[in-house]
Design a protein that fits this description.
The chain is mainly alpha-helical and about 300 residues long. The chain is built from 12 helices and 3 strands; from the N terminus they run ααααααααααααβββ. The protein folds into 3 domains: about 80 residues; about 120 residues; about 70 residues, no CATH class. A 3-stranded antiparallel β-sheet has the order 1-2-3, with no helix packed on it. Helix 6 runs parallel beside helix 8 and helix 10 packs antiparallel against helix 11.
Length: about 300
C-alpha cells in the first residue's frame, strides 16, 4: 500500500536511515575511518540499512492504516462523495499498470454507482486491462468483469450483462485449475448476477431465496440497499405489493443519500412505476429495431 503514499513513505525511510546513521556514529564513537577498526565503515552502513528497513515497515503500517481509513469512508461509513473527493486524485497518481490502480478504480466505480452515476461508474473501469497488470491478473480481472456486469444490470442492459457473465464463466474455468477459492467465489457471484437479471425480467423461476439471503447477510450497506431495492421491484411487478413496500421501507432505514433511497422514495409514492422489462427485437442483421413487452406486443422503431 506504500504506492499510495510514496512521498511520505520515502521521507519516513530517509528518516530511518538518518537515525540509523546517528545511532551508529554514537555506537562507534565517531571512529568511522579508524585503522584499528577497519570494519567500522561496514558497521556504519549496516546500521543505516537497518534503519531504512525498520522505518520501511513503519511506513507500510502507516500507508495501510491511511488506506483503510479512506476505504472505510465508502464501505463502512457509506460516504461515497467524501471518498471520491479524498481518493480519486490519490489513485490517479500511481502507476496504471499496477493491480492497486485497478482495485482503486473499482472502488471509485462503486462510489459513483452508490450515487446513481452508472455511466461515470463504467467510465472508471471501462479502459482497464487487468491481463496487462504485473500481478494478481486473474483476481483483478474477475473483480473488474463482475463490476461491469453489475453496472450493466443496474443500467438494465441485460444483454451486455450476459456477455460479462459469460466472461465470468471463462474466468471461473481457469480459476478451477489455479485458484480454487476464487473459483468458488465466482460461482456465487455468477449465481447472484443471474438471479438479479431474472428478477428484473420478472421471471417466475427467479432464485428469490438467494437474493433474500444476499440482502440479509450483506455487511455492505450500499450493496444491501441495492439488493433490497431490486427485491422490492420484483415483488411489485409480480403483484406482491405488501412485500414490495416492506422492502422499500427497509431501503429508507438509516439513510445515507444513496441512489437506492431516491428510487425507493419514488416507488413508495408511485408503486406502479416499477421497472418493466422489454425484450430487444433485432432484424436479420442483428440491428435493434424495437422491443417486445411482457404481453408479446412488439414496438417497432421507425
Amino acid at each position: 500500500m506504500i504506492v499510495y503514499f510514496k512521498k511520505v513513505s520515502n521521507l519516513i525511510m530517509i528518516l530511518g536511515g538518518v537515525l540509523g546513521g546517528i545511532a551508529a556514529w554514537f555506537y562507534l564513537h565517531g571512529e568511522l575511518l579508524s585503522t584499528e577498526h577497519p570494519t567500522n565503515v561496514f558497521i556504519f552502513a549496516l546500521w543505516i540499512f537497518a534503519g531504512v528497513i525498520l522505518f520501511r515497515v513503519i511506513a507500510s503500517v502507516y500507508a495501510t492504516r491511511k488506506l483503510k481509513e479512506l476505504q472505510a469512508e465508502l464501505y463502512k461509513d457509506c460516504k461515497p462523495q467524501e471518498f471520491l473527493e479524498h481518493f480519486e486524485a490519490l489513485n490517479a497518481g500511481i502507476p496504471h499498470n499496477l493491480a492497486e490502480y485497478a482495485h482503486g478504480q473499482n472502488n471509485i466505480s462503486f462510489a459513483r454507482e452508490a450515487l446513481g452515476d452508472f455511466d461515470g461508474a463504467m467510465d472508471a473501469i471501462k479502459d482497464l486491462k487487468p491481463q496487462e497488470l504485473r500481478i494478481h491478473a486473474l483476481t483483478t480481472t474477475a473483480l473488474i468483469v463482475n463490476q461491469k456486469a453489475n453496472l450493466q444490470i443496474l443500467r438494465k442492459d441485460f444483454e451486455a450483462a450476459s456477455f460479462q457473465i459469460e466472461d465470468l464463466y471463462r474466468i471461473k474455468e481457469v480459476a478451477e485449475k489455479r485458484a480454487k477459492m476464487l473459483a468458488d467465489n465466482l460461482g456465487q457471484v455468477i449465481r447472484l448476477q443471474e438471479a438479479r437479471i431474472a428478477a428484473a425480467k420478472g421471471d417466475e423461476n427467479t432464485d428469490i431465496a438467494y437474493l433474500e439471503e444476499e440482502e440479509k447477510l450483506s455487511t455492505n450497506l450500499i450493496h444491501k440497499k441495492e439488493i433490497a431495492l431490486e427485491l422490492a421491484e420484483y415483488y411489485l411487478r409480480t403483484g406482491q405489493k405488501e412485500n414490495g413496500v416492506k422492502k422499500l421501507k427497509a431501503v429508507l432505514e438509516n439513510e445515507r443519500g444513496l441512489y437506492p433511497e431516491t428510487r425507493a422514495r419514488e416507488l413508495l409514492e408511485h408503486p406502479e412505476k416499477y421497472y418493466v422489462y422489454q425484450e430487444v427485437v433485432r432484424d436479420d442483421t442483428g440491428k435493434e429495431i424495437g422491443q417486445q413487452d411482457a404481453d408479446g406486443f412488439v414496438v417497432i422503431r421507425e
